[in-house]
Amino acid sequence: MSDFPPAHIELREITHAYRTAAGPLPVLDNLSIRMTKGSFTAVVGPSGCGKSTLTRLIAGLMLPDEGQVWLGGELVRGPRSTVGMAFQNPVLLEWRTILKNVMLPLEIVPNTLSTRAREDRAGELLALVGLEGFEDKKPSELSGGMRQRASLCRALVHRPEVLVLDEPFGALDAFTREDLWQTMHRLRGEEEFTAVLITHDLRESVFLADEIVVLSGRPATTQYVLKNTLPTDRTLEHLYTPQAAEMLADLRHQIQIAQGRVPTTEAAQ
User: Fold this and answer.
1) Entry pTM
2) 216 burial class (0-12, 13-18, 19+ CB within 10 angstroms)?
3) Domains in the chain, start-ordered, CATH in brackets?
4) What is the average pLDDT value for the chain, to the nearest integer?
5) What is d(CA 92, CA 219) in angstroms, rounded to the nearest whole number?
6) Is the dihedral of CA 50, 144, 60, 4 positive or negative?
7) Preceding omega of 219 cis (within 30 degrees of 0)
8) Torsion angles phi and psi, residue 190, rounded to 5
């Protein structure tokens, strides 16, 4: 019997290429990642290495050329309603109030909730992220950070098993970004989901994730996996500890290897 807990999300030997006018563009090469239920995994790597492709594969929005994606013990063959997604651009509908925007997945994903129950669920999430009192506002009346909070609520409103975050904080200023890291940490304590975060921000990955996966240069494979040793009840102050500094230095070194900026002999050490 294996000593490892069962995987909630598993990418098995994934190889994928995009079709272009110049021929196939290899993006992923024999990539394997496993994530346990309730875990929070960050994926980092050089720009253009295929990180966002992973999100589409996990959500079932595309299928790999080779290999398999498993979610909750089932082979992913198409879009999954058990996956919630949030992106860098919140893409809120201007003609709907914030409450109605958050409720949108409940109009699409089959459920037995009454209209009142849907409103209550959306309202609870908005209150949790500090948007109580803004339910009837339109997206244009909110700041960028507030719109992103609403986007997170929309991704979680139908209680997905998996939350996929594709650089949701990347376009925000540093102070707003750090504030939303804390919001995300709070959401994790209140909601049950397995999270996958795509990010270019190493500090973000160290603050939010249990495990950080570094992808190699394109075509990407799993180059390195770092277990986060910070306490689970971490605060922003933990990012300024020697422990965090050591992990960040380790990750920066791995990114340099992936970018080909470290000599082969040094990378092998």
Assistant:
1) 0.90
2) buried
3) 1-82+204-269 (3.40.50)
4) 91
5) 33
6) positive
7) yes
8) -100, -30
